[in-house]
Amino acid sequence: MRSYKKLILTFSASVFTALMLMPSCGPSLIEQGEITFDITYPHNPDLSATMKMVLPKEATLIFKGSKMLTVVKTGKIFRTEIYADEIKKELEMRLDFGSDDFFTLLSDADQKDFIGTQPHYNVTPTETEDSLKGLWAKKYKVKYDSDTIPEFESWFTETLSLQAITWFSNYNSVKGVPLIYDIDQHGIRMHFEISSFKKREIDDKEFTRDPALKEIPFKEYNRKLHELFEVILS
């Protein structure tokens, strides 16, 4: 009887030790889905009626595992895409506007150049968290190096499979996916805010570029995009 009790105690201790050594399991990440964003221009109050008509008002982000595709478009007039893989650090940009049908694959040096064209942000986490369209998110305070632009807020979620997808942007110090944020491009400041989220299966074909797009170097792509925004703003 004593041997039996000793065996039970030994077995219980072994199980307890094994459980203590097991890694803790947090909530599982969402592996696939689609986010839509409303795009507004609250920091560009002088936009003409033509600019407001041409500039995009909605964006879509699809993701699967480590891959992401963001599409920003205005009907059939204007469409840009950014494809990224956070594990392979692959970055591709695509443009379809009139006769401009291009894409560019950014090397490591190109990615550094791209980051260098963006204003530097000082991003500070806060203690505030909330649910945005069903995704748990954390608020950050964002400040430009320049004191002429007021501090603003961004919200990021860490509930998706993407955890380092902002590596090529001025939010690269923040973990997760932005749900509310601002970006500056070629004289335009765009405000993105999540309008919906849905889990869905993503076919790998959805990341594939249009075969009609022609490849050009990043510097040429960036120049063409800058010229496009100059036309819109003129």
Could you explain the architecture of this structure?
The chain is α+β, with helices and mostly antiparallel strands. The protein has a domain at 32-118 and 161-233: outer membrane lipoprotein receptor (LolB), chain A. The protein is 22% helix and 41% strand. It contains four helices and twelve strands; from the N terminus they run H-E-H-E-E-E-E-E-H-E-E-E-E-E-E-H. It has a twelve-stranded mixed sheet, covered by helices on one side. Strand 2 and strand 3 form a beta hairpin. The radius of gyration is 23 Å and the shape is globular. Residues 7-12 and 15-25 have low confidence and may be disordered.
Q: Please summarize the sheet with the most strands.
A: 12 strands, mixed
Strand composition percent: 35-45%
Helix content: 10-25%
Which architecture of the domain at 32-118 and 161-233 would the CATH scheme give at its second level?
Answer: Clam
- Give the overall pLDDT as a whole number: 87
Classification by helices and strands: alpha+beta
Which regions contain 5 or more consecutive residues with pLDDT less than 50? 7-12, 15-25
- Secondary structure: number of strands: 12
H/E element order: HEHEEEEEHEEEEEEH
Characterize the overall form.
globular
Distance between the termini: 93 Å
CATH topology of the domain at 32-118 and 161-233: outer membrane lipoprotein receptor (LolB), chain A
CATH C-level label of the domain at 32-118 and 161-233: Mainly Beta
Rg over CA atoms, rounded to whole Å, is 23 Å
Number of H/I helices: 4
Strand order of the largest sheet: 7-8-9-10-11-1-2-3-4-5-6-12
